[in-house]
Amino acid sequence: MNHYISIIIPAYNEADKIKDTLENIIDINEINEIIVVDDGSSDNTVEIASNIKNDKVKVFKLDKNRGKGYALNYGLKISMKNADIIGFLDGDLGSSSSEIKKLITPILNDEADVIIAKFPPAKKKGGLGFVKGLAKQSVLDMTGVELDATLSGQRIFKKEVLERFDEIPFGYGVEVGMTIDMLKHGYKIKEVLVDMTHTETGRNLKGFVHRGKQYYHIKKVLKQKRKEWR
User: Fold this and answer.
1) What distance in Å separates the CA atoms of residue 194 and residue 75, rounded to the nearest whole number?
2) For position 173, which CATH number holds?
3) Residues paired with residue 9 on neighbouring β-strands, in sequence order
4) What is the per-residue burial (b if ≥16 Cβ within 10 Å, else e) of 167-184?
5) How many domains does the chain have?
6) C-alpha to C-alpha distances, 155 to 90, 125, 163, 212, 230, nearest whole angstrom
């Protein structure tokens, strides 16, 4: 069976990485379409992406910054028209975006319904593990399934999984919320170790503010999911 694979890349101020991210996946034969959704960037992300001359690449610009969840939903409305396999990929992966091939192979082999990229350990010290620990333990408590990469945004789905969602959850809790829903619906998730790298947040004020927002959003999503699945 011939599959149509669409990759959605939500991008916000990724001018320094988006070119490498795109150029390292356009030659992967299995990928039919790459949808870049510029989330109201204030830099020239959209211009750089639009200059990639390849029929696979389709670039869309939102009128203002609306968040990752909104950008993913925007891309899904386009990709769902043709694709039977859909992937989410961050715009800041640079040349390591080519590792998405490791996620595509197992989904084509029907090893699971969803494949999630598991990153190697961070090269610099980030947070204190509270956000990652909250996400991992909450998914385990609610579903009985232990996963290491609950926060990873690099994922490949069979179309039928995404059709279960009216829309992708908004905010930084998007991955955790989706993971709980997918497992509750009985879909099989497989984690695959990849050699991907992206922009890491350090132990500075900006990093701690970011992780604080993540923690808040995840707690909010978990509260909602406990109501939905009780």
Assistant:
1) 24
2) 3.90.550.10
3) 36
4) ebbbbbbbbbbbbbbbbe
5) 1
6) 10, 24, 15, 24, 27
Structural domain of 61:
5-228
**Each residue's pLDDT tens digit, 24-45:** 999 999 999 999 999 999 999 9
pLDDT, position 167: 78
pLDDT in tens, 66-118: 988 899 999 999 999 999 999 999 999 999 999 999 999 999 999 999 999 99
- Tally Cβ neighbours within 10 Å of residue 141: 11
User: What does pTM read for this prediction?
Assistant: 0.89
